[in-house]
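It is worth pausing here to work through a concrete case rather than discussing structure prediction in the abstract. The textbook approach is simple: state the sequence, then state the predicted structure, then interpret. We follow exactly that order.
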Amino acid sequence: MRYQLIALVVAASLGLVDRSQQPFDPKVRAKLEESFAAYRSLEALHIKVSWSARYTGSMSRDDIPLPGPDTLELRMQRPNKIYLEASSKSGERPSKYLIVSDGTNLWHWRSVPNTYTQVPAPPTLKELAKALPDNAIGTYDGSTWTVDNILEWDALVLDDDPIKEMIQSGLAASLSSERIGNELVDVIRLRGSESPSVPISTDMTYHLSGVSHLVRECRLLVRGKDPDNGRDFTADLRGVYDLINAKPDFTIADFQFTPPRGARLVKGK
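Step two, the predicted structure:
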């Protein structure tokens, strides 16, 4: 099952959510629906995202990993062009993968084991996932595969209902606004409270542009006591959007795929 939103992925996977919390705030639901509708109405998009993490206490990236790749670049142009490059520093060695559609062909490449597939490009973005390997969105370091949760990929390509999953998550939600520079930003907070069995809390914050309604920053703060030794810990994960362009001027070169040196073509779907 794919989780569309980072907070749900991390909180649910760690068992931090008390599902008996208050009903999901309808104002937050409306704002999330507005944001996902904005993504799905885009004719083109170019983003670059970088994640960082700070840990205190005994926790590390092995305990609370980033929800997605360390760095991500995504270019999209309807009806069926896409360029997605993701890299990760986790695991035994750094790794990277590419998904590229130039409108005619669709490629998927992994740095480990340096192989790629090539199949005809589907006519629309919504059909891309079915043409790709089942584990296309994820990191493989040679021994371990880890799914990546990329909000924009889910919003643009998949047909899942992210709002339904958020409501069912049990996370407490709130909505506020703040001004960053000349822009008014909507701030959505999603919180998973401590429970008697799990003395850990999560606090996920999304900054949404008040103009485009697209995500411009994410932060996940996890705090609590290590169940093994009782010591306090924190994990502060931040995703910064270094580039957001909803009206990019793409050229043919933006959706080209050149096999990396030594890459081997393997059979696709």
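Step three, interpretation. The first helix runs from residue 6 to 14. The domain at 6-265 is CATH 2.50.20 (outer membrane lipoprotein receptor (LolB), chain A).
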